[in-house]
Amino acid sequence: MAVDLRVKLGDLELEHPLIDASGTFDLLEIARRVSGDYFAEFPYAAYVPKTVTVDARTGNPPPRVTETASGMVNAIGLENPGVEAFVEGLPALASLRQPVIVSVGGNSAAQYAAVVERLEEALVAGGSTLPTVAGYELNVSCPNVDGGLSIGVDARATSEVTAAVRALTRRLLIVKLTPNVTDVRSAASAAVGAGADCLALVNTFRAMVLDPATLRPFLGNRTGGLCGPAIKPIALRMVAEVAEALPRVPLVGMGGVMSGRDALEFIACGATAVAVGAANFTGLEAPRRILDELRAECVARGLTRVVDARGAALTAGA
Amino acid sequence: MRSRPPEAHTHAEQWAATTRCRVVGVRRFGAFAAVELVAPGIAATARPGQFVMVTVPDGGFLLRRPISLYTARADRAGLLVEARGAGSERLAAVEVGEAFDLAGPLGTGFPTHGVTGALLAGGGIGCAPLQFLADTLAGQGAQVTAAFGFRDGRQARVAGAFDLPRLWVATEDGSVGRRGLVTDVLSDLDVPASTTLYCCGPLPMVAAVQRWAAAAGLGGYASLEAHMACGTGSCHGCVVDTSRGLLRVCSEGPVFALDEVVAS
Known about the structure:
CATH superfamily of chain A: Aldolase class I
Strand content of chain B: 25-35%
CATH topology of the largest domain in chain B: Rossmann fold
Distance between the termini of chain A: 30 Å
Shape of chain B: globular
Oligomer: heterodimer
Mean pLDDT of chain A: 96
Structural class of chain B: alpha/beta
Order of helices and strands of chain B: EEHEEEHEEHEHEEHEHEEEE
Distance between the termini of chain B: 39 Å
Radius of gyration of chain A: 19 Å
Largest sheet of chain A: 7 strands, parallel
Number of helices of chain A: 9
CATH architecture of chain A: Alpha-Beta Barrel
């Protein structure tokens, strides 16, 4: 039985629902080392690179990662070479068949806007020497210069950042929400009200790991973000909450997706696309396997279209 | 999480592809296990200093463990595992007939071209890649001397896993070999100025070897360890501080020039 895996994220058509979670899959790094044309084998339906900020960031001091029960805690600190270097590197992605969704970070609305403005300028000038940049994903889990709390925990700040970018681009605008809030629906509504086309959730949960020998925080940054299978049930609940509150907004669901069934569960909770994060660390074969499993899950359930599973877990009428 | 069959992949020999490898030999040295696996693809292409990402069997662990290649002979790859956390305890408890999923070889190796005399300094489990290195250097006719440092006699049991013609051991408690640090052994040796120094171990040990090498006027290489998530350059989780900035142990390393490591 053939399964139609295509989905539409706003106006963006994807050949299947799976994309990579920002910062977990470095396509250029892998393509450089693999023999042959790795771009032709790139398994995801869109490529989301590591978050780009206006200036280069060296990231957090090591150690930056450690495994925890059914998960891992990381504090990379948005290490990236800055938007100028990112723009210079874009032509290397030109032959990618799939669209690119650029993840953008910053500490103020002006910084997000500066990144998107520079990219828009480069995309207009670059033409066919550049990949198809279909849109932006705003990573609002960055600390706000005003107060230090992450932008995404504040509905007003989320709204300001979204509006500032919306004014600069007609491309697909996704806002990636932080789960470190009392009610994820208020930031979700704020982002959509300010012009977001889609929402992605969830980012990592703030967490701490101790060094058992010293009882001091293990990570160089003291705290980090928890991801992996440990967070999946909470992520599913949050995706379902947003899907029920904002039924017309396409969602990218993520949080501990390790298998095709996990991906289907996010779709059942209302997600249109599903991002794979920590599973990328288990082996380069993981995305292809998860996609094969998703197809098999659809076959086993008699689904000829993956979109038919969307919202199956939601309350009637949502 | 559950255990899975080997993952399908389009190119069997592709970089970082996962290969299921049968365990054909296990020798135990206290908390250490020297594990011999049938891994023709890895053994044929690996350079000393490179590592593999090993999936902990039976599920239950999210991340793979980076383990340096201890030997590569014919179609066999050897790993030396120290049980020091839940994941490595499971790996060290391996029995003949089991299989490990391995991805590799990964990372940079130790440069050996043109080396005629080498001094190998290892600390704890950091000794592991030095057997493979010594085998390679001996194969090109280089003179190899090794100095290993351990905390105590229990840890020093792993020295039994090594087949090195000139090996000197120090323990901090003096229970095996010379009492002191690996640098005390190095200071005992009479080393020609043309010697290349190779070291592998925890950062404080690398720092001590750096100071000793600077005083002795020797240059060389250090292989570093780090907690890793992906092992393949994507996550930037395994960075260490160097004179070139924070660099990834999995991609720019694990082998660095000894003098570029910011160890202290």
